[in-house]
């Protein structure tokens, strides 16, 4: 119990809980933006291009890793199976956009071979995945 003659203690604003909340919100935003960067293919070291453009259509991704292994939407497969899957996608009535994410260490011949097989399918549009330097 306080006597009437005692002065009131000065009011204090404790900002430590507010700082904790702000850091929790900041952590949430940082973590959520990491998931906004869509990585539809397997991780490869893409070559850089200053004139790269973003595609608005949801693409099918063909990944060619540094040793020449193929994957279609993260599923490893051979070139013949890849061609059959893309052909089935094209026969569904839509014009699929197929992005080729080729590691910069893969040989040019392997990329051309994949592109040649996919270009033989009617209605397929091709794009090459790059990153901005």
TrEMBL record:
Pfam assignment, any one: ExbD
Family per similarity comment: Belongs to the ExbD/TolR family.
Species for this entry: Drouetiella hepatica Uher 2000/2452
Membrane topology classification: Single-pass membrane protein; Single-pass type II membrane protein
Main localization (coarse): membrane
Name of protein: Biopolymer transporter ExbD
Tagged with keyword Transmembrane helix: yes
Compartments where found: Cell membrane
One of the GO BP terms on file: protein transport
Single Gene Ontology MF annotation: transmembrane transporter activity
GO cellular component: plasma membrane
Keywords: Cell membrane, Membrane, Protein transport, Transmembrane, Transmembrane helix, Transport
Membrane-spanning residues: 15-37
């Amino acid at each position: 119990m306080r006597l009437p003659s005692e002065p009131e203690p000065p009011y204090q604003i404790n900002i430590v809980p507010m700082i904790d909340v702000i850091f929790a919100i900041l952590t949430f935003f940082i973590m959520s933006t990491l998931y906004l960067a869509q990585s539809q293919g397997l991780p490869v070291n893409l070559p850089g291009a200053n004139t790269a453009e973003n595609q608005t259509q949801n693409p099918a991704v063909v990944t060619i890793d540094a040793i020449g292994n193929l994957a279609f939407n993260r599923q490893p497969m051979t070139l013949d199976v890849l061609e059959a899957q893309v052909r089935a996608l094209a026969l569904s009535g839509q014009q699929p956009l197929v992005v080729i994410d080729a590691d910069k260490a893969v040989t040019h011949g392997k990329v051309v071979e994949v592109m040649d097989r996919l270009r033989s399918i009617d209605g397929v549009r091709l794009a090459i995945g790059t990153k901005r330097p």
